[in-house]
Amino acid sequence: MSKSKENHVGMSLRQISEGQLLKYTNMMKGWQNRWFVLDPRTGMLEYFMSEAERKQRPRASLHLAGAIVVPSEEDSYTFSVNAANENSFKLRATDAKERQHWINRLRVVAQAHTQVLAESNPPLFRDHSQLSSSNLSTSSAISASPHNTGPSQKMLSCNLTVLDAFSGVRDYLRRVECEHQRLVHDIESLPSSGSTTTCTDTEILILKATSQATLLCLEQCLAILHYQQQQPTKPVKVNSAGSSPLLGYSNSKKSMEFKQISDSPRLRSESAVSVLSDKNLSGAYSSDTNESSSVPVLDDESQYVPIAEESLSPIAQEMGNEEYKGRTLKLLSQLKLGTELTKVNLPVFCCEPRSLLQVIADAFRQPHLLLKMAKESDADHRMAMVVQWYLGCIRACHLEMTAARKPFNPVLGEIFKCIWNMKDEDSGEMLVFRFLAEQVSHNPPVSAFHFECPQRGLSVHGNLSIKAKFMGMYVGVALGGDLVLELPPHKQSQEGDTEKYEMTFPMLYLRSFLSEPWLEFGGKINVNCSESRSSAGIVFQTKPFYGGKPHQATAEIKTHSGNTAARISGDWMSGVMEMSWVNGQSESIDLETVGEWLEKKIRRICDQADDESYKLWHPVRQNLVSGDFQMATEHKRMIEERSREKERKRHNQGMSFCATYFEPNNDLWVRKK
């Protein structure tokens, strides 16, 4: 290439590129025309609503250092730009020629800025011993030369080997994902029963799960490789003039922004290291690794004080709603139908200021019916009271989640303890109800809980696991696990055994998350008592798309012979329901007047252990309530990183996690004796 042609190529690379492209926004808005501007000097790709708004502030931008530009296999017009910070643009040109023009320009700029970032921030796996002192001195002299204002020949050659390698792997993963979807479709098309191969055969289910796990593992490995390729280990070194990889020197504001973007991952990693090396963490881990089989003694109830329930302030609520609407659309545009949201790290503004363990505790703050059913002699009436109590627990949880926000995911080993005091109206005795919950598993997430009144010999125990999936226009939450209510022996009991009522949990649905989100329960659960042989079925009816009322439920109580004894129906959310017995009697049930909600008591934060929910999430809760979402996000990340570090240390030492208060018993977690 002649010198004049080389200069022409250099000048063309330095020029700003701009033009109109179609940008995919989300499922609601689809493809929209936007005016894009590519500035090689700053390495920024920006877009505006139209060309007329070019001199105004851009709607959004991506820095191309570490970015990957991938042409789509769907057609010859679409391509995507994936930045190192996980943001991306999905774009479409008017024809194949224009697409190739944009891809070439974007890759050149991305390669140039990536090389500068890589040279000043080598990856962790780079072997520095291969660099000779002569090479270092030569490169330092070249970079420090005041006459080195143009791009190097190596940079202009546009070596896209690394970028093309990542693009090729992503293309293969897309094909693998398509094959996986075909496999899932074929499996689900098989009959559910019969003499031939069915969709429920063990080998078929293992094949389906293995395919899904393999695909997920490959995607995570690629993400780790991409991250390590861009991961800096020391600050970016730029000269006083702020050199640009394509245009030498620049004093523009965007160059400083690029430096801040480059430094931010390093600062975040240093912050995480400082947290993990904190003495509090080492102390917490030392107590965790020296686990013993002994169960800690229960706290003295005199240590417990009333808890002040906290909620988002009006300002924080308004800020959260604005963030919720904007970020939700962005999040939905990146989700696929059936995506498991349990593995998605949702923004902190979507959370309510309490842990899931506290939500479970709030379900038991109305124990008046438990005392009444323990005194009831008729088995059918006891079963009817159990159904009323269960509906009251669901109602208590729902009222606490009226904002349709997600509680904090408990970290492994997290504990929540509280008590309620209530006076027995018959004897005048002051009763103590104790609640204990612990996160006993992280993958899958399982929360074990135990609720009891030792003075009356009644208890409730169980475990809850949550799996949420994105279903397009709503989110379906499967509440797995079991719930067991144990009542003391009644006077008519011949053997003197306790009565156990076993039940499960309904489905939970998040509706209208694009406008005004709201929650409803759906599905059928069964309540069984093997001692009295009575049973009940509760059906939570979901609201029809057109007409109908929300929060409707029906229940049918059956005797030991299988005959229907009574039916319950009505709006469980309002608390007003109707119970009709087969003998013609009917009565109105008001879950609101069963008994007032008891005041929950916990220990003071200064007396709590580091792994207790209220103390653990206190900084996140305080910032979330005040509306400081940035600090709340940072504290939440630190808590989760601390838990992951504990797990890594246990893994390196060949140890497994041992719950403090609970132990597995068949499919149920029970409290240690």
From TrEMBL:
Q: Which residues form the PH domain?
A: 14-111
Q: What is this protein called?
A: PH domain-containing protein
Look up the domain of life of the source.
Answer: Eukaryota
| Keyword flag Thylakoid | no
Q: Alphabetically list the UniProt keywords.
A: Lipid transport, Lipid-binding, Transport
Region Disordered, as annotated, extends over 128-151
Q: Where is the composition biased (Low complexity)?
A: 130-145
Query: What PROSITE patterns does the record point to?
Result: PH_DOMAIN
